[in-house]
Amino acid sequence: MRQVLSISLQENIIKDIKKRVKNGCFKSVSEYFKYLFKMDTEDVISEKELMKDIIQARKEYKEGKTIKANSLADLL
Q: How many Å is the maximal CA-CA distance in the chain?
């Protein structure tokens, strides 16, 4: 069942959203917000996962399991 959700936004934000829809990026304003919600729920790492990764990285650093690189290109 569909329901209507009303939000209050500044006029300049509304214009930007409508511009994206008009330019063909999204079928409607609703599709734009559905996309944002999907990205928020799929691509965001939880705080718990982030802390787990930080703890693991610190452990590996202390054990000397790191790579000294002169640039980011050296890591790739």
A: 56
The answer to whether 21 and 28 have CB atoms below 8 angstroms apart is yes
Residues contacting 35, CB < 8 A, separation 6+: 26
Count of C-beta atoms within a 10 Å radius of residue 72 = 7
**Could you tell me the two tokens for 9?**
């936004």
Entry pTM: 0.53
Provide mean pLDDT across the span 33-51: 86
Q: CA–CA separation, 20 vs 17, rounded Å?
A: 5
Residue 38 has pLDDT above 80, yes or no: yes
